[in-house]
Amino acid sequence: MGALILRLSARHGRATEYRRLGGEPLGVGRGFGNALIVPDAYLGAEQFRIVPEDDAFWLEVLDRTNPLRLNGVLRSEYRIALAAGDRIEVGHSVFTLLDENTPVPAARSLAASPWERLGDWRPAVSMFLLLLLAALTGWLDFLKTVEEPQWDQLLFGALSLCGSVMTWAMTWAALGHLMRHQAEFWAQLALAAAVALVWLAAMELSGYIAYAFVVDAGFFIEAASWVLSAVLSYLLLHGALSLATQLRHPGLAALSATLAAYGLLGLSDLSTRDDFAAQPQPATVLRAPFAKRLVGRDYASFDADVAALFAGLPSEDDDQESVESK
Fold first, then answer.
1. Which pTM was predicted?
2. What is the pLDDT averaged over residues 224-246?
3. Where are the alpha helices (DSSP H) in the chain?
């Protein structure tokens, strides 16, 4: 049995990947468990496998959802004999079998993403992102603590967020397993942890920018929170749908779901908002970590200034006395 070379290319004809077929089976599909990972939305998680057997190569079709053509002819068999010169077409991808003596250009593979090239390092990278998220969450909570920090509360906040990320990843991995598509837990975990990291960093940065340069800091922070949350929610949902489902257009589905969810949240926020407006503060209040770096900051005077802003407003005791007098 002579060796063959499998060339992967898109329908426009540009070759993107070359694999030499030897004595081991070659799995092809979108899933991370394949020897040849193809980021084609019209391929299954495990589309087909090329198996060397009896001095020949055989094509074993594992996913019959997507039509497969061999040399332009639609084939429905489970097992098909292959030879040099055969052309396999599935989805948007074309696989051509070349003779072992065919010269192969030295071209960089465009088929695999950086995440796919990590290989066995994917679990370690995912856990590193999760630990980094926990550390960043605890650090930001510590910076915002003016009094003596409660370490158990800081730890609980970090663990709660990491638990939510783990739950999200396990849910989508289970969904991918049920749909027999992409059940890669580590990919879902890395995606959710990375999005959470970006959201925390962006929200904190927008807060510092607002208090340093923007007159209406409250409005700027609220608007930034809505925009950042919507954009990152779309990216997170898009990635989860692409990995766990066989949707042809996961981006459109994620966009529709995000617009619907934030539209309902906006209507709910408008219906519950009141007309109360706090009195303006006489000076900009620096947020942590800048407040912690101000040596000798008089927090007692600051509390007194805040109390003076609300002087004259009715308190809960006044309201209770008014009710009893009536």
1. 0.60
2. 85
3. 114-117, 122-143, 151-178, 185-213, 217-244, 250-272, 290-293, 299-309, 316-325
